[in-house]
Amino acid sequence: MTMKLLSGDPRLVCELALRPLVLVFWSILGTKALDNGLARTPTMGWLHWERFMCNLDCQEEPDACISEQLFMQMADLMVSEGWKDAGYEYLCIDDCWMAPERDSKGRLQADPQRFPSGIQHLANYVHSKGLKLGIYADVGNKTCAGFPGSFGYYDIDAQTFADWGVDLLKFDGCHCDSVTSLADGYKYMSLALNRTGRSIVYSCEWPLYMRPFHKPNYTDIQYYCNYWRNYDDIYDSWESIKNILAWTTDNQKEIVEVAGPGGWNDPDMLVIGNFGLSWDQQVTQMALWAIMAAPLLMSNDLRQISSQAKALLQNEDVIAVNQDPLGKQGYCFRKENKIEVWERPLSNLAWAVAVRNLQEIGGPRSYTIQVASLGQGIACNPGCIITQLLPEKVQLGFYEWTVTLKTRINPSGTVLLRLDYI
Ligand SMILES: *[C@@H]1O[C@H](CO)[C@@H](O)[C@H](O)[C@H]1NC(C)=O
Ligand SMILES: *[C@@H]1O[C@H](CO)[C@@H](O)[C@H](O)[C@H]1NC(C)=O
Ligand SMILES: *[C@@H]1O[C@H](CO)[C@@H](O)[C@H](O)[C@H]1NC(C)=O
C-alpha cells in the first residue's frame, strides 16, 4: 500500500485536479462569503415549489393551493412532528403568492383571496412557532409565473419584506433582458436587503441564468448571496436527481471550492417523501445532499409523509454531516465500474464518504475500498472508526490504514459512511 497507488491509477476518472485546489484555496475563499452573519451552515427548511408549484385553485383544491392555510399547516407540523427540532427552520414561500398588481404605493401585495391575513400576519404566526419565513421575488420584470417582478422596485421590495418580518428571500431570474441587468439586479438587491437592517438570508439563481451567456463569476456570487442555484429545477424523478449529480461532478472543479460558511451551492430541493423516487434513490438524494453541503429545503407534504421518508429526512447523523461546521463541500474522487465514490472533509479530522451504485439492474453489488485511499490518504492514518450512516446505521468499528473496507450497495442506492479519526 503506497501513496503512488492513490494518484497514479488511470481508472480514477473523476479524480480531480481538485486536490491542489482544495488545499490551496479553501482557506482563502472561505472568508469572502456574504457578510450578513447568516447561513453559516447550509439553510434548512421547507419550500413549496416542487410539490405545490403554482396551484391557484383554492376552490377545487383547498388543501393544495398556494395559500396562507397551507403555510400555517406546515408551520404547525414542522413543530409538532419534530422537523424544527431536527433543524428545519425556514418555511419558504415560492412563486405565486402575489396579487397580480402592486398596491397604490408600488408595494408588492399578497393575493387577497389566498392570503387574506397578509404576509406580515403569516410571518408573526411562523415566528410564534419559533420558525422563520422565506418569501420569493424576481430580479426581472415578472416572476417566472408572470407575477410582478422587482426590476425598478428593489429598494421598495427589500423594505416591504423587512417590514413584514421576512427572514429569507429567494430571488429568481426570469424575465430579465440582459446579463448585465441580471448581475446588477442580484447585487443591488443584496445591498438593498442589507440596508433594511433586517437579517434576511439571500438565495440567488444568478449563476443558473448567467451560465448560458457567460461563465458565472463565483467570487462575485459568493460575496452577494448566501446560496445559489447553478442548474435546472429539480423534479420528482430519478432522472432529475441523476442529472443534478452528473452536472455537479462535471463542474465540481469550478463550484466546490467556492462553498463555505455564508455561501453554498444549491442543487435544489429535497423531493424525498413524494412520488418519484424509490427508497434507495431517496437515500441517494439525502446522502449526496449531505456530501454536497447543500441547503436542505424539503418540498413535500408534511401532512402526508411515510414514516420511512420522515426518518430519513430527520436522520440526525446525516444532518450532522450536512451541517458540519467546517463548511467544506464534498466532491467525487473516483468513478469506476458504475460506482462513484464521494468524500467530504468534516471538523475534527473526520470525513464522510458516499459510495454510489450507478447500476440500475441486478441486485446489491459489493465494492471494496482501500481505506488508505479515503480522505486524501489521511482520513484513516493510522486508523479510524467507521460508521455506516445510510441506508441504516451500522457500527463498522476500527479500521487501520492498511486494510480494505467492503461495502454493499443497492442499485441506484448509496452507502454513506462517517470516518472518525483516531
Ligand atoms: C423591464 O422592462 C423595461 C421596459 O420594457 C426594459 O426597459 C427593462 O430593460 C426591463 N428590465 C429587465 C431587467 O428585463
Ligand atoms: C450589512 O453588511 C455589513 C458589512 O458588509 C455587515 O457588517 C452587516 O452585518 C450587514 N447587515 C445586515 C443586516 O445584513
Ligand atoms: C470576478 O469578480 C471580481 C470581483 O468583482 C473581480 O475582481 C474579478 O476580476 C472577476 N473575475 C473575472 C474572471 O472576471
> Alpha-carbon distance between the termini?
20 Å
Q: According to CATH, what is the topology of the largest domain?
A: TIM Barrel
The tally of helices reads 15
Q: What would you call the shape?
A: globular
Spatially, the strands of the biggest sheet line up as 7-6-5-4-3-2-1-8
**Beta-strand level of the residues, as a percent range?**
15-25%
Radius of gyration: 22 Å
Proportion of helical residues: 25-40%
Q: Give the overall average pLDDT.
A: 94
Largest sheet: 8 strands, parallel
Q: Which structural class is indicated by helix and strand composition?
A: alpha/beta
Assembly of the depicted chains? single chain
Which small-molecule species are bound to the chains here? 2-acetamido-2-deoxy-beta-D-glucopyranose
What is the number of beta strands? 16
EC number: 3.2.1.-
Main location: other
Protein name: Alpha-galactosidase
Function: Catalyzes the hydrolysis of glycosphingolipids and participates in their degradation in the lysosome.
